[in-house]
Amino acid sequence: MPTTRRQFLSLAGSVTVIPIVTLRPLEATPAMLNTAIRNVVGEAPIRTGKVKLDIPPLVENGNTVPMTVSVASPMTADDYVKSIHIFNEKNPQPNIGNFYLNPSSGRAQVSTRIRLADTQKVVAVARLSDDSFWQVTADIVVTLAACTEEVN
Amino acid sequence: MAALINVPSRAKRGDIIEIRTLTSHIMETGFRRTVDGALVPRDIITSFTCRYNGTEIFRADLFPAIAANPYLSFFTVAKESGKFEFAWIGDNGYSSTASASITVE
Q1: Nearest CA in chain A to B61
Q2: pTM for the structure as a whole
Protein backbone atom coordinates (compact mmCIF):
# COMPACT_ATOMS: atom_id res chain seq x y z
CA MET A 1 0.00 0.00 0.00
CA PRO A 2 1.53 3.33 -0.97
CA THR A 3 1.82 5.78 1.90
CA THR A 4 -0.03 8.98 1.27
CA ARG A 5 1.46 12.30 2.25
CA ARG A 6 -1.26 12.69 4.86
CA GLN A 7 -0.48 9.32 6.44
CA PHE A 8 3.21 10.04 6.46
CA LEU A 9 2.75 13.40 8.17
CA SER A 10 0.45 12.03 10.86
CA LEU A 11 2.98 9.29 11.54
CA ALA A 12 5.88 11.73 11.68
CA GLY A 13 3.96 13.92 14.09
CA SER A 14 3.32 11.07 16.49
CA VAL A 15 7.00 10.14 16.88
CA THR A 16 8.07 11.02 20.41
CA VAL A 17 10.97 13.44 20.57
CA ILE A 18 13.64 11.98 22.82
CA PRO A 19 15.36 14.73 24.77
CA ILE A 20 19.10 14.81 24.31
CA VAL A 21 20.78 14.99 27.70
CA THR A 22 24.36 16.18 27.82
CA LEU A 23 26.48 15.90 30.93
CA ARG A 24 27.91 19.18 32.07
CA PRO A 25 29.02 18.70 35.69
CA LEU A 26 30.50 22.19 36.00
CA GLU A 27 27.19 23.93 35.69
CA ALA A 28 24.76 25.50 38.05
CA THR A 29 21.32 24.06 37.52
CA PRO A 30 18.04 25.94 37.62
CA ALA A 31 17.58 24.30 41.05
CA MET A 32 20.81 25.92 42.25
CA LEU A 33 19.56 29.21 40.84
CA ASN A 34 16.37 28.87 42.86
CA THR A 35 18.28 27.94 45.99
CA ALA A 36 20.58 30.93 45.58
CA ILE A 37 17.61 33.25 45.14
CA ARG A 38 15.82 31.75 48.15
CA ASN A 39 18.99 32.22 50.25
CA VAL A 40 18.61 35.95 49.70
CA VAL A 41 14.85 36.29 49.59
CA GLY A 42 13.79 33.67 52.13
CA GLU A 43 10.13 32.74 51.92
CA ALA A 44 8.99 36.15 50.72
CA PRO A 45 7.09 36.29 47.44
CA ILE A 46 8.96 37.74 44.46
CA ARG A 47 6.97 39.92 42.10
CA THR A 48 7.90 40.67 38.54
CA GLY A 49 8.43 44.30 37.59
CA LYS A 50 10.15 47.50 38.69
CA VAL A 51 13.57 46.06 37.89
CA LYS A 52 15.20 46.63 34.51
CA LEU A 53 18.14 44.61 33.23
CA ASP A 54 20.11 46.06 30.35
CA ILE A 55 22.25 43.33 28.86
CA PRO A 56 22.95 42.46 25.23
CA PRO A 57 20.70 39.59 24.05
CA LEU A 58 23.54 38.09 22.00
CA VAL A 59 27.16 38.20 23.15
CA GLU A 60 30.15 36.93 21.28
CA ASN A 61 32.49 36.70 24.25
CA GLY A 62 31.11 35.56 27.59
CA ASN A 63 34.26 36.71 29.39
CA THR A 64 33.10 40.27 29.65
CA VAL A 65 29.44 41.12 29.22
CA PRO A 66 28.37 44.68 30.10
CA MET A 67 25.30 44.77 32.30
CA THR A 68 23.25 47.56 33.85
CA VAL A 69 20.50 46.96 36.35
CA SER A 70 18.14 49.70 37.45
CA VAL A 71 15.09 49.79 39.68
CA ALA A 72 12.16 52.19 39.42
CA SER A 73 12.27 53.80 42.84
CA PRO A 74 12.03 57.38 44.13
CA MET A 75 15.03 56.66 46.44
CA THR A 76 13.61 58.67 49.34
CA ALA A 77 14.12 57.93 53.03
CA ASP A 78 10.87 55.89 53.20
CA ASP A 79 10.93 54.29 49.77
CA TYR A 80 14.26 53.15 48.45
CA VAL A 81 16.09 50.10 47.14
CA LYS A 82 18.05 48.27 49.83
CA SER A 83 19.89 45.85 47.61
CA ILE A 84 20.12 44.36 44.14
CA HIS A 85 21.17 40.74 43.61
CA ILE A 86 22.18 39.28 40.26
CA PHE A 87 22.02 35.55 39.53
CA ASN A 88 22.72 33.29 36.57
CA GLU A 89 21.39 29.93 35.59
CA LYS A 90 24.32 27.98 34.14
CA ASN A 91 27.67 29.33 35.36
CA PRO A 92 29.50 26.99 37.80
CA GLN A 93 28.10 29.19 40.59
CA PRO A 94 24.67 30.85 40.58
CA ASN A 95 25.69 34.18 42.17
CA ILE A 96 27.05 37.09 40.16
CA GLY A 97 26.96 40.01 42.56
CA ASN A 98 25.13 41.68 45.44
CA PHE A 99 24.91 45.47 45.54
CA TYR A 100 23.81 47.38 48.62
CA LEU A 101 22.26 50.83 48.21
CA ASN A 102 20.67 53.40 50.49
CA PRO A 103 18.49 56.53 50.14
CA SER A 104 21.56 58.69 49.48
CA SER A 105 22.26 56.67 46.32
CA GLY A 106 19.81 58.98 44.54
CA ARG A 107 19.32 56.57 41.68
CA ALA A 108 18.98 52.79 41.94
CA GLN A 109 21.25 51.84 39.10
CA VAL A 110 24.42 49.72 39.03
CA SER A 111 26.61 48.71 36.08
CA THR A 112 29.32 46.10 35.90
CA ARG A 113 30.78 43.53 33.54
CA ILE A 114 30.04 39.87 34.06
CA ARG A 115 31.07 36.43 32.83
CA LEU A 116 28.64 34.00 31.28
CA ALA A 117 29.64 30.38 30.75
CA ASP A 118 26.77 29.47 28.46
CA THR A 119 23.63 30.63 26.75
CA GLN A 120 21.39 31.19 29.72
CA LYS A 121 19.10 33.29 31.87
CA VAL A 122 20.25 36.13 34.10
CA VAL A 123 17.96 37.11 36.98
CA ALA A 124 18.05 40.41 38.88
CA VAL A 125 16.24 40.64 42.22
CA ALA A 126 15.76 43.93 44.06
CA ARG A 127 14.88 44.29 47.73
CA LEU A 128 13.00 47.48 48.50
CA SER A 129 12.86 49.30 51.82
CA ASP A 130 9.47 47.72 52.62
CA ASP A 131 11.18 44.31 52.22
CA SER A 132 9.26 43.44 49.07
CA PHE A 133 11.17 41.68 46.32
CA TRP A 134 10.97 42.38 42.60
CA GLN A 135 12.68 40.55 39.80
CA VAL A 136 13.35 40.55 36.10
CA THR A 137 14.82 37.83 33.89
CA ALA A 138 16.84 38.24 30.69
CA ASP A 139 17.85 35.57 28.20
CA ILE A 140 21.32 35.84 26.72
CA VAL A 141 22.84 33.84 23.89
CA VAL A 142 26.59 33.35 24.36
CA THR A 143 28.77 32.14 21.51
CA LEU A 144 32.14 31.97 23.35
CA ALA A 145 31.83 30.71 26.91
CA ALA A 146 33.73 32.03 29.91
CA CYS A 147 34.92 30.59 33.24
CA THR A 148 35.81 27.03 32.43
CA GLU A 149 38.16 27.18 29.48
CA GLU A 150 41.72 25.85 29.79
CA VAL A 151 44.54 28.04 30.99
CA ASN A 152 47.39 28.23 28.51
CA MET B 1 47.36 47.90 42.01
CA ALA B 2 46.18 50.52 39.68
CA ALA B 3 42.62 51.74 39.88
CA LEU B 4 40.76 54.14 37.63
CA ILE B 5 38.21 56.31 39.38
CA ASN B 6 35.81 58.62 37.63
CA VAL B 7 34.05 61.09 39.93
CA PRO B 8 32.99 64.58 38.85
CA SER B 9 35.34 67.10 40.49
CA ARG B 10 32.54 69.65 41.01
CA ALA B 11 28.83 69.23 41.54
CA LYS B 12 25.85 71.22 42.75
CA ARG B 13 24.42 70.30 46.14
CA GLY B 14 21.70 67.69 45.66
CA ASP B 15 22.90 66.55 42.24
CA ILE B 16 22.86 62.84 41.56
CA ILE B 17 26.36 61.96 40.40
CA GLU B 18 27.70 58.79 38.83
CA ILE B 19 30.82 57.16 40.23
CA ARG B 20 32.70 54.74 38.01
CA THR B 21 35.53 52.54 39.23
CA LEU B 22 37.80 50.10 37.50
CA THR B 23 40.57 48.17 39.19
CA SER B 24 43.06 45.74 37.72
CA HIS B 25 42.61 42.20 39.00
CA ILE B 26 42.74 38.80 37.33
CA MET B 27 39.47 37.56 38.95
CA GLU B 28 40.57 33.92 38.55
CA THR B 29 37.35 31.94 38.87
CA GLY B 30 38.69 28.78 40.51
CA PHE B 31 36.87 26.71 37.89
CA ARG B 32 39.53 26.71 35.19
CA ARG B 33 42.05 23.93 34.68
CA THR B 34 45.51 23.96 33.21
CA VAL B 35 46.36 21.71 30.26
CA ASP B 36 47.58 19.12 32.84
CA GLY B 37 44.17 19.07 34.48
CA ALA B 38 45.18 20.90 37.66
CA LEU B 39 42.55 23.28 39.01
CA VAL B 40 43.72 26.89 39.09
CA PRO B 41 42.93 28.18 42.60
CA ARG B 42 40.37 30.93 42.97
CA ASP B 43 41.73 34.46 43.27
CA ILE B 44 39.00 37.08 43.14
CA ILE B 45 37.98 40.35 44.72
CA THR B 46 35.12 39.49 47.05
CA SER B 47 34.08 42.87 48.35
CA PHE B 48 34.02 46.51 47.34
CA THR B 49 33.01 49.49 49.45
CA CYS B 50 32.74 53.20 48.79
CA ARG B 51 32.70 55.74 51.62
CA TYR B 52 31.76 59.39 51.26
CA ASN B 53 33.35 61.44 54.04
CA GLY B 54 33.46 58.33 56.19
CA THR B 55 29.89 57.12 55.55
CA GLU B 56 29.39 53.97 53.52
CA ILE B 57 27.31 54.84 50.44
CA PHE B 58 27.75 51.70 48.35
CA ARG B 59 28.89 48.15 48.93
CA ALA B 60 29.12 45.14 46.63
CA ASP B 61 29.79 41.41 47.10
CA LEU B 62 31.56 40.07 44.03
CA PHE B 63 31.60 36.47 42.80
CA PRO B 64 33.70 34.64 40.17
CA ALA B 65 31.07 35.63 37.57
CA ILE B 66 32.37 39.21 37.67
CA ALA B 67 34.70 39.83 34.71
CA ALA B 68 38.44 40.39 35.16
CA ASN B 69 39.41 43.96 36.07
CA PRO B 70 36.12 44.61 37.89
CA TYR B 71 34.20 47.64 36.67
CA LEU B 72 31.50 49.11 38.86
CA SER B 73 29.35 52.14 38.32
CA PHE B 74 26.81 53.49 40.79
CA PHE B 75 25.18 56.76 41.89
CA THR B 76 25.10 58.99 44.90
CA VAL B 77 23.72 62.39 45.88
CA ALA B 78 26.37 65.11 46.17
CA LYS B 79 25.81 66.40 49.70
CA GLU B 80 29.01 68.11 50.74
CA SER B 81 32.57 68.68 49.59
CA GLY B 82 34.94 66.00 50.63
CA LYS B 83 36.46 62.70 49.80
CA PHE B 84 35.34 59.37 48.38
CA GLU B 85 37.31 56.38 49.60
CA PHE B 86 37.20 53.11 47.72
CA ALA B 87 38.37 49.75 49.03
CA TRP B 88 38.63 46.38 47.33
CA ILE B 89 39.14 43.23 49.41
CA GLY B 90 39.82 39.80 47.98
CA ASP B 91 41.26 36.30 48.25
CA ASN B 92 44.81 35.68 49.52
CA GLY B 93 44.73 38.81 51.66
CA TYR B 94 44.26 41.11 48.69
CA SER B 95 43.33 44.67 49.51
CA SER B 96 43.66 47.93 47.66
CA THR B 97 42.32 51.42 48.13
CA ALA B 98 41.82 54.58 46.13
CA SER B 99 40.26 57.96 46.75
CA ALA B 100 38.81 60.93 44.89
CA SER B 101 37.70 64.35 46.05
CA ILE B 102 34.71 66.43 45.10
CA THR B 103 33.78 70.08 45.53
CA VAL B 104 30.08 70.62 46.15
CA GLU B 105 28.68 74.12 45.65
Answers
A1: A98
A2: 0.85
